[in-house]
Amino acid sequence: MTRVCFELRIKPELLDEYVARHSPVWPEMLAEIAAAGRRNYSLFVAEGGRLIGYYETDDDTAAQAYLTASPIAARWEAEMSRFFVGLEARPDEAATPLTEIFHLADQLAAASTTSAEGDAL
């Protein structure tokens, strides 16, 4: 499984409308996200329009290809593109990926393995 986190900037003057457009998202777009293999998908917004997104997937390249080919996702992304600062492509293709530097479960598992190896000596 891959964890993906990304950042975009929403135009501050359109932030309220952007939030409203996600309450709720079109049912057919929700179905496409799920069909693409993305799960545990969340968006977070901060003052000034900073948007952070997170999802999990088994194959992000395949998920992105599925959504790129989807007419429903193309329509959604076309409608969403006006909300973002400085994008030259679809928002789902132009988001800045963030590098994961810490994950609790991974480190707990590694610490448990190290501890178990130490106990075996």
Automatic annotation (TrEMBL):
Pfam families: rhaM (PF05336)
Matches recorded under InterPro entries: Dimeric_a/b-barrel (IPR011008), Rham/fucose_mutarotase (IPR008000)
SUPFAM superfamilies: Dimeric alpha+beta barrel
Alphabetized PANTHER family for the sequence: L-RHAMNOSE MUTAROTASE
Name assigned to this protein: L-rhamnose mutarotase
UniProt organism field: Microbacterium candidum
